[in-house]
């Protein structure tokens, strides 16, 4: 049985159980399994009335909600190809993606999103809102599920490549029918045998590959899912949800660690002293250098300080999952110290979100776990990780050349440099491609931003964007220009960019990049890694 049929069967079995819970600060709005089936039936009927056929593309533009999930399940059930889009992305960028996949229908959350797309997308077909779709009357929650072939496309998830042009990653039914059961089995081993009634919280947009896999896997297991509705209220939502686990990008975990450290520093006194001694003792224990005093300090902190911190972060937390970008070793060890293991996951949109996962009891700080069951991994002579298996997507929509560039003889070339230890744990050591993935998890091509910087002032001669694995993007700029003028130029550029592509800080370099100082190649191309090494102290200063 396909993952979709399993989800629908679970919803029928749990018709009276809250399966989706929208967190509105400290309030909950629950959707029973029966509610979700009824909404899905409404969407199926709407699609049929609109003339949507199997294989047609239907775009979905909305923030996370029970309505979003109902639309997703219904579009897939009808045999159409669901194209989820990021509600906070610039309309002009969305219009390029929509023009590429040519959906017959776009379902938007509200009039504001529909109107923004209508202005940006001149050849827009039918545009509907949730209010219109869910006004459809149905007599039953039973509806047919289209029988698709395993290699039929079922969804297109857009990402940006090194050129900055969006590429639609095509998942087949086989891709997802492989990945969802794998994730379900892995979850069942984390934190002890899972019951299927875990308190699972989620705050990342469902339009992203990893988030969608979390959603499908949770419902596949017949488990409820609590969803954030406002990231500005995330702290309150997490406290109200009191989850057992949730998926993260490194940004949030880094923020939590910094927040605890800042709070204890301000408090000072005995508590801060015990915490700092316990922290040092934990580091020495990991390094094998702990003495009796360290063991005593760690025992005291482990009894009096760390449990209190853990409780403030999440009283019911059993573990955390982290993906989208590498998590720092320091942060992963810190969470381990206070009693919350963090399991890292590595993958790309093109690999149905997952390639490696940490295993309970075997996680190693700085590594992203072992390869998931059923796939092959190899490292090329250039150190690039390549992947082969049923998780590798069918390619990019309408881009055969780009597909052939990254998928060769069934192997997907990740663009990431890796190493593997003797226990089979994999570690990212660098990028083969220029694509930046900051801690937010977004894919950012630096070249278009760098070009915009150069065009912002004739006195700026060179610019390089930094930010892979960092909290935000920054830039190193050269030219006969004042620091203030660079800041003003960047402010104007940022006004035209989505939040995750904005340049938050910059360094005005005192020297040009040249072949003579080794910062350019002979044909005037930037040697990115060399530039980052050359300006490493200034870069670290921006991220202090």
Can you describe this structure?
The structure is a single chain. The chain is built from 19 helices and 24 strands. The chain folds into 3 domains: 3-145 and 154-229, 3-Layer(aba) Sandwich (Rossmann fold); 251-268 and 302-315 and 319-431, ANL, N-terminal domain (Rossmann fold), CATH 3.40.50; 446-542, GMP Synthetase, Chain A, domain 3 (2-Layer Sandwich). Helices cover 40% and strands 22% of the residues. The strands form 5 sheets. Strands 2-1-10-9-11-12-13-14-15 form a 9-stranded mixed beta sheet, sandwiched between helices. Strands 16, 17, 19, 20 and 21 form a 5-stranded antiparallel beta sheet that branches.
Quick structural gist:
With 544 residues, the chain is α/β, with parallel strands linked by helices.
Segments where pLDDT lies below 50 for 5+ residues? none
Q: Describe the biggest sheet?
A: 9 strands, mixed
Distance between the termini: 51 Å
Strand content: 15-25%
CATH superfamily of the largest domain: ANL, N-terminal domain
Overall number of domains: 3
Question: Overall pLDDT, averaged?
Answer: 92
Classify the fold: give the CATH topology of the largest domain: Rossmann fold
Q: Helix segment count? A: 19
Strand elements, count:
24
Indicate the CATH architecture of the largest domain.
Answer: 3-Layer(aba) Sandwich
Based on CA inertia axes, which overall geometry fits? globular
**What share of the residues lie within helices?**
25-40%
Rg over CA atoms: 24 Å
CATH class of the largest domain: Alpha Beta
Summing up helix and strand content along with how strands pair, one would put the structural category as: alpha/beta
Spatially, the strands of the biggest sheet line up as 2-1-10-9-11-12-13-14-15
């Amino acid at each position: 049985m396909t993952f979709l049929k399993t989800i629908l069967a679970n919803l029928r079995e749990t018709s009276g159980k809250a399966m989706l819970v929208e967190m509105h600060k400290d309030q909950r709005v629950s959707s029973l399994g029966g509610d979700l089936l009824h909404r899905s039936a409404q969407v199926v009927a709407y699609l049929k009335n609109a003339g949507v056929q199997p294989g047609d593309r239907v775009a979905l533009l909305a923030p996370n909600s029970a309505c979003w999930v109902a639309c997703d399940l219904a579009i897939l059930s009808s045999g159409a190809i669901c194209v989820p889009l990021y509600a906070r992305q610039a309309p002009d960028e969305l219009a390029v993606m929509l023009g590429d996949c040519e959906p017959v229908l776009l379902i938007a959350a509200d009039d504001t999103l529909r109107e923004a797309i209508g202005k940006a997308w001149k050849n827009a077909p039918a545009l509907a809102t949730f209010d219109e779709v869910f006004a459809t009357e149905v007599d039953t929650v039973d509806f047919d599920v289209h029988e698709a072939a395993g290699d039929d496309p079922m969804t297109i998830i857009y990402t940006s490549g090194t050129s900055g042009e969006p590429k639609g990653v095509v998942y087949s039914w086989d891709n997802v029918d492989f990945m969802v059961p794998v994730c379900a089995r892995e979850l069942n081993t984390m934190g002890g045998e899972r019951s299927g009634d875990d308190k699972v919280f989620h705050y990342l947009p469902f339009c992203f590959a990893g988030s969608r896999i979390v959603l499908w896997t949770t419902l596949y297991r017949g488990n409820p899912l609590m969803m954030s509705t406002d990231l500005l209220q995330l702290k309150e939502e997490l406290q109200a949800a009191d989850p057992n686990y949730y998926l993260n990008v490194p940004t949030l975990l880094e923020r939590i660690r910094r927040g605890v450290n800042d709070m204890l520093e301000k408090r000072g006194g005995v508590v801060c002293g015990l915490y700092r001694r316990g922290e040092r003792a934990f580091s020495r224990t990991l390094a094998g250098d702990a003495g009796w005093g360290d063991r005593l300090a760690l025992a005291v902190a482990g009894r009096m300080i760390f449990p209190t911190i853990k409780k403030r972060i999440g009283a019911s937390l059993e573990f955390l999952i982290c993906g989208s970008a590498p998590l720092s070793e320091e942060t992963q060890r810190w969470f381990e110290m206070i009693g919350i293991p963090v399991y890292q996951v590595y993958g790309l949109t093109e690999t149905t979100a997952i390639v490696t996962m940490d295993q309970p009891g075997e996680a190693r700080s700085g590594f992203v776990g072992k390869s998931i069951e059923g796939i092959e991994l190899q490292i090329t002579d250039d150190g690039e990780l390549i992947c082969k298996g049923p998780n590798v997507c069918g390619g990019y929509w309408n881009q055969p050349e780009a597909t052939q560039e990254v998928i060769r003889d069934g192997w997907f070339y990740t663009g990431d440099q890796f190493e593997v230890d003797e226990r089979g744990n994999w570690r990212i050591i660098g990028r083969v491609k220029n694509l930046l993935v900051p801690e937010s998890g977004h894919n950012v091509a630096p070249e278009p931003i760098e070009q915009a910087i150069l065009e912002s002032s004739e006195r700026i001669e060179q610019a390089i964007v930094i930010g892979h694995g960092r909290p935000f993007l920054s830039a190193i700029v050269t030219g006969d220009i004042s620091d203030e003028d660079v800041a003003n130029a960047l402010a104007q550029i940022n006004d035209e960019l989505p939040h995750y592509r904005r340049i938050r800080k910059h360094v005005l370099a005192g020297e040009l990049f040249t072949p003579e100082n080794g910062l350019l190649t002979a044909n005037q191309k930037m040697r990115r890694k060399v530039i980052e090494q050359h300006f490493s102290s200034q870069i670290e200063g921006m991220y202090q």
